[in-house]
Amino acid sequence: MPAAVIIGAQWGDEGKGKATDLLAGRIDYVVKFNGGNNAGHTVVIGDEKYALHLLPSGILTDGVTPVIANGVVIDIEVLFGELEALSARGVDVSKLLISANAHVITHYHRTLDKVTERFLGKRQIGTTGRGIGPTYADKINRVGIRIQDLFDENILRQKVEAALDQKNHLLVKVFNRRAISVDEIVDDLLSYAERLRPMVADTALVLHEALERGETVLFEGGQATMLDVDHGTYPFVTSSNATAGGAATGSGIGPNRIDRVIGIVKAYTTRVGAGPFPTELFDESGEFLRKTGFEFGTTTGRPRRCGWYDAPIARYTARINGVTDFVMTKLDVLTGLERIPVCVAYDVDGQRFDELPVSQSDFHHATPIYEEFPGWSEDISGARSFEDLPKNAQDYVLAIEAMSGARISAIGVGPGRDAIVVRHDLLD
Ligand code: IMP
Fold this sequence. Notes:
The chain is α/β, with parallel strands linked by helices. Helices cover 32% and strands 21% of the residues. It has twelve helices and 20 strands. The strands form five sheets. Strands 9-7-5-2-10-1-11-15-19-20 form a ten-stranded mixed sheet, with helices on both faces. Helix 3 crosses helix 4 and helix 5 (153-174) packs across helix 6 (182-196). The longest helix has 22 residues, at 153-174. The chain is globular and about 65 Å long. The structure holds inosinic acid (IMP). InterPro entries: Adenylosuccin_syn_GTP-bd, Adenylosuccin_syn_Lys_AS, Adenylosuccinate_synth_dom1, Adenylosuccinate_synth_dom2, Adenylosuccinate_synth_dom3, Adenylosuccinate_synthetase, P-loop_NTPase.
């Protein structure tokens, strides 16, 4: 069983960390292939709660080699901050490998992210403000700074000069901010070079060799399908490929290496930031989901927008990623509801859409067509087999499975590491 990808099936925050955790002990490498410190994995181990933004959650598992691959954008200060915090709690972080080709988030990327959002006014994306978009934009524009540039001061200086030539015009003349000096950026980046050096590797080669040896590699997608720059609700998306295909380009392994794609889907839906969200609730049901599910951003602390499960989105995700298994998280949050609506299709100006409308304008004013399922009131957090779940909870899962385009192989029933019902082996 060589390579598996974990991806978010909705708009992020589905609880991917828990699924990674479920596979602990069977994984040799865990790879972050997209995004940066805009992500937020919360992993609960015993009484300890770990919130990771940049590091892959597999870093918490003994024996696993964590890899930050070429598709990631790295804020080096945040990287060292997280490494130090984990070390202080006794986590061994010495195995971390970082791609020489990963791009670096600098001070000017963070500044541009924030001022661009401010200028967009009510058209803003609601980014995390971490500099993600501007860093990927520089990568595509071929004016980015890569990790390997930190080991050649001359090259680094030339690249920062070229980038700031443009950026300072923008910052000063358009955004009315102060210019940023080349020295400030170069000195800052160089100050990390020696600490970084031992971690930097040709990670594509490392992963290739691991796969050749028959070792198991888990690719952990940041963000989610509906935030993918190509397949999400553009422009209300992140700036990377958060879908399964991104695991190949974002790490340098061949796509035919991947044989399991695990989609993480919440038993309801949440979203942070702006953009269309057909099942969003503005009433006390939304408040119930937010409170009970503790739906506040791991990275920004923002309250998440909450709504019912959206089956056309799950089907879309299953198709775009080639999902082999879904892990449904947070089923316990629905406990106590009398009836649970599930979106089965959309209505757009009187026309029924069973699948996502291709036009973003249609999707913006799609209203959900719901089917309702009876709820349950029993505490399900102790359930460890499907049969332990109340009949109505089983029926809810089975109904959703039939609509969602792939089997639901595991079900999260509480925040703890072991609060999960496994129906099928995710790697088999
Ligand atoms: P950016 O990734 O900071 O550029 O933000 C773009 C959009 O993606 C915004 O709507 C963010 O709220 C959203 N986003 C980015 N990372 C995450 C995440 O890990 N979970 C949920 N939403 C995210």
